[in-house]
Amino acid sequence: MTDARDTAADTSLRTTGGAPPDDGGPSADGAPIPLLEPREGIPPVIADESALAEVIAAFAAGSGPVAVDAERASGYRYGQRAYLVQLRREGAGSALIDPVACPDLSGLGEALADAEWVLHAATQDLPCLREIGMVPTRLFDTELAGRLAGYPRVGLGAMVENVLGFILEKGHSAVDWSTRPLPEPWLRYATLDVELLVDLRNALEKELDRQGKLEWALQEFDAIASAPPPEPRKDPWRRTSGMHKVRRRRQLAVVRELWQARDRIARRRDVSPGKVLSDAAIVEAALALPGSVHALAALNGFGHRMGRRQLEQWQAAVDRAKALPESELPQQGQPVLGPPPPRAWADKDPVAAQRLSAARAGVTALAEKLNLPQENLITPDTVRRVCWEPPKPADADSVSAALTGHGARPWQVELVTPVLVEALSSARAQ
To answer: Is residue 13 within 8 Å of residue 37, measured between CB atoms?
Structure first.
């Protein structure tokens, strides 16, 4: 594996302030080095099948892990599709692929099926990569590795700076990647995002091994790679920002109708729903229950910039909700699956509340001792479920089985089981 130090010679022509020091990390005064240019320059954007075939052949012939990244147009376009895919592999260099012009990348995915994919925050990119036929069988997530290793800041820029000693320019992360043609500064930024990803992976692997956490990380990566695609969210309109203000069922129906109308328009126009109508405007209309277009136009979010036709379509959605019979109005809140909110435990089951308090304290102490985030040691939802309905008997075997049943990985089960057994026992003894 390539050590981060081995990149020093390659980076000497693409940093400011002259050549980097011999170790390839921070400069002689300890300052990190800005990374300004990809080592082989910006590759051409692949936008046709013949060029794609060449890239597939080159990456299939490459060696070692393959760095993978994807850029979306969140806040600009409907959905979370990929608008640029970046890759880098030893022996193949870097590649930029336009998945709009080349929407089927299953051939590339198959060519890389045996390789380990290196991604940063893999769960963010895997859904859009899956849509274009790219599904890893093995992966290494540098963000998750950073969390397990105890780094306080795990964004890609912070990790590259703190681990490798280079500064990545991150100014284009939130631009509209559906723009065509993509500007050269954006392409440079996208290429640099995968430039040192494998180097970062190698350095983090060594650090995790040094801390005795490498096996934990490998189990986590396997769980991500083998996880099925997420189920579509039920009643997604309930996630409208500001919903806590909406308390009556008729008002909930207005939120639902406006959200669904907005979603249909956004999908048809391929724009972000928020650009069609804001969440704040939806909630405002639900609370006011306007009876006319004139009343609707007076509300925040439905101002003078909105034409008569637009106002009429929103008022029609409000009117549909107002005309629904009581039996068709949405219920206040969704059916609760699993434990109630922790704030209600003291009233519903004081002993369960004691179990949860003891379990939380134990998990927090263990996470601090291991120098990793509490939610990576074990998910709060898993702790709540075990404490609400503890196994009987609450011994090590039963608690281990319960944790496994809730999806905990073997390393988590081994570490957390003694903490939960003690918490369940202490609460029972009180």
So the answer is: yes
Instruction: Give the pLDDT score at 26.
Output: 58
* Number of domains within the chain: 3
- The reported pTM is 0.89
Q: Which residue ranges of the chain lie beneath pLDDT 50?
A: 1-24
In a domain, 231, yes or no: no
d(CA 391, CA 106): 45
> Which residues have CB under 8 Å from 7's CB, separation 6+?
24, 164, 196, 199
- 287 domain residue, yes or no: yes
Pair of tokens at residue 68: 């993978």
pLDDT of the residue at 338: 83
**154-199 per-position pLDDT tens digit:** 999 999 999 999 999 877 888 999 999 999 999 999 999 999 999 9
Cite the DSSP H helix spans in 270-392. 273-276, 279-288, 293-297, 308-323, 345-348, 350-370, 374-377, 380-388
Q: Single out the residue of 217, 203, 260, 179 nearest to residue 372, CA to CA.
A: 217
Query: In the listed set 200, 226, 252, which residue is the last one of a domain according to the structure?
Result: 226
| 271, burial (CB in 10 Å: exposed 0-12, middle 13-18, buried 19+) | middle
pLDDT value for 303: 77
- Domain assignment present for residue 335? The answer is no
Q: Domain span at residue 289?
A: 236-328
CATH number of the domain where residue 193 is located:
3.30.420.10
